[in-house]
């Protein structure tokens, strides 16, 4: 599984492809009857903005971690496992990556509230304009999606804060000696 995670993390196109295919399958489940190819093409076209945001965020993370995709992936793996780098250059790169991600997620609680309101409005609109199958499908999908987003987002934020404290504590201890 680690090899798959590393491959997907290194290759942005693989992330995009898997996301578009997963979204297309979900759309086909909620709205059956359309051809799979038309759903995939429509989903890919509608995802262009998200892809641009993902590419920009990835570029900033690469720059914060030293400019290499391999280095960024290695640091991300260490961050997920909670391994504090020992090499001074790697520690500085990790510090940059952690600070960049913390900066990017500084409004995460407000974003979570906004996302919940937006999804609630979509569910209400679906309930008013579509049938019970679509309403139930969107509701279940939304609850699972929001639960996953909040759980994973809070978990990642905790990891970032833990890594920041570990890097700061080790730096402060080294400066005292």
Your description of this structure?
This protein has eight helices and no strands. 86% of the residues lie in helices and 0% in strands. The chain is elongated, with a radius of gyration of 20 Å. The model has no long low-confidence stretch (mean pLDDT 88). The protein has 177 residues and is mainly alpha-helical. It has helices spanning 2-10, 12-30, 36-46, 48-64, 69-81, 88-104, 108-129, 132-176. α5 (69-81) packs across α6 (88-104) and α6 crosses α8 (132-176).
- Spell out the helices and strands N to C: HHHHHHHH
C-alpha termini separation: 42 Å
Strand content: under 5%
Q: State the helix count.
A: 8
Helix fraction by DSSP (H/I, runs of at least 4): over 70%
Low-confidence stretches: none
Q: Which structural class best describes the helix and strand composition?
A: mainly alpha
Shape: elongated
Largest sheet: none
Rg (CA only): 20 Å
Q: On the 0-100 scale, what is the average pLDDT?
A: 88
Number of strands: 0
Summarize, please.
This protein is mainly alpha-helical. The chain has eight helices and no strands.
């Amino acid at each position: 599984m680690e090899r798959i995670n590393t491959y997907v993390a290194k290759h942005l196109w693989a992330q995009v492809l898997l996301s578009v295919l997963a979204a297309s399958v979900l759309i086909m489940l909620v709205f059956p009857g359309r051809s799979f190819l038309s759903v995939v093409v429509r989903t890919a076209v509608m995802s262009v903005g998200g892809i641009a945001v993902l590419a920009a965020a990835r570029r900033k993370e690469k720059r914060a971690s030293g400019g290499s995709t391999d280095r960024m992936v290695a640091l991300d793996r260490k961050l997920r496992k909670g391994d504090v780098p020992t090499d001074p250059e790697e520690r500085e790169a990790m510090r940059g990556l952690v600070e960049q991600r913390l900066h990017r997620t500084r409004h995460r609680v407000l974003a979570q509230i906004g996302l919940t309101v937006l999804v609630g409005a979509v569910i209400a609109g679906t309930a008013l304009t579509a049938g019970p199958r679509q309403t139930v499908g969107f509701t279940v999908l939304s609850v699972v999606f929001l639960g996953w987003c909040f759980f994973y987002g809070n978990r990642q934020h905790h990891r970032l804060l833990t890594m920041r404290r570990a890097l700061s504590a080790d730096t402060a201890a080294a400066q005292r000696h």
